[in-house]
Specification:
alpha/beta, Rossmann fold, three-stranded antiparallel β-sheet, 46% helix, globular, binds 2'-deoxycytidine-5'-monophosphate
Length: 221
């Protein structure tokens, strides 16, 4: 079967990571979580004391970063200049910072080239915010995954460790803020591509979403 390039775009917490990973697994494809790249830049900006709107600082930072996805024992790891930062990029602070740096032209330009490079080999599911609109406008199949803000907040809340002191209300507020940041920025805002298949996952399980997606994947031989 011919290998395809599939894109999935979605707002924060629309259940994508699990869905995208499962879809990739079902097809025997690679899965690329592009949000991790923005989180990686945010983490490095913080480590280097660079403010999220300091374009000169961010430009210099990007010029010295070597960001890679590396296969590890428990799945794909994210490394920057050979340091594994996978476990440090999911904190609430880095999450909000990633949304802020993702609005900066210098960061998007740097990551655009990197993502295009990763897409040279097909047989891959790319997940992000601008995959079908900007990075891979010629993708073979494009999905746009949505879910109500309340549902997304509840899903995140259920994933949290029992030790977490975060409340459902705070998660919902953060998701709303990120939706606002991600969809109103001038550059590559979150929106469905014209030719995207839109799936509302509010009332669907992960399995149901993946099954629905599979019905849209052409069986090209
Ligand atoms: O998917 P995520 O929540 O890990 O993404 C973190 C941030 O990165 C998100 O707020 C927006 C940004 N992002 C983006 O602008 N474009 C992408 N393709 C992926 C993520």
């Amino acid at each position: 079967m011919k290998s395809l390039l599939i894109t999935i775009d979605r707002p924060a917490g629309a259940g994508k990571t699990t869905v995208s990973r499962s879809l990739a697994q079902s097809l025997g494809y690679r899965y690329i979580d592009t949000g991790a790249l923005y989180r990686g830049v945010a983490f490095e900006a913080k480590s280097h004391g660079i403010h999220h709107d300091d374009d000169n600082g961010l430009e210099h930072l990007c010029s010295i970063l070597d960001i890679k996805f590396v296969a590890g024992k428990d799945g794909t790891r994210l490394t920057v200049n050979d340091s594994d930062i996978t476990d440090q990029i999911r904190t609430p602070e880095i999450t909000m910072l990633a949304s802020a740096v993702s609005a900066r032209t210098v960061v998007r330009k740097y990551l655009l080239d990197l993502q295009k490079d990763l897409g040279k080999e097909k047989g891959v599911v790319f997940e992000g915010r601008d995959m079908g609109t900007v990075v891979f406008p010629d993708a073979d199949v494009k999905f746009y995954l949505d879910a109500s803000c309340k549902t997304r907040a509840l899903r995140r809340y259920k994933e949290l460790s029992p030790k977490s002191s975060t409340t459902l209300e705070k998660i919902e507020r953060d998701i709303k803020d990120r939706d606002e940041n991600d969809s109103t920025r001038a550059l590559a805002p979150l929106k469905p591509a014209k030719d995207a298949i839109i799936i509302d996952s509010t009332d669907l399980s992960i399995k149901e979403v993946v099954e629905l997606m599979l019905t849209h994947i052409p069986n090209i031989s």
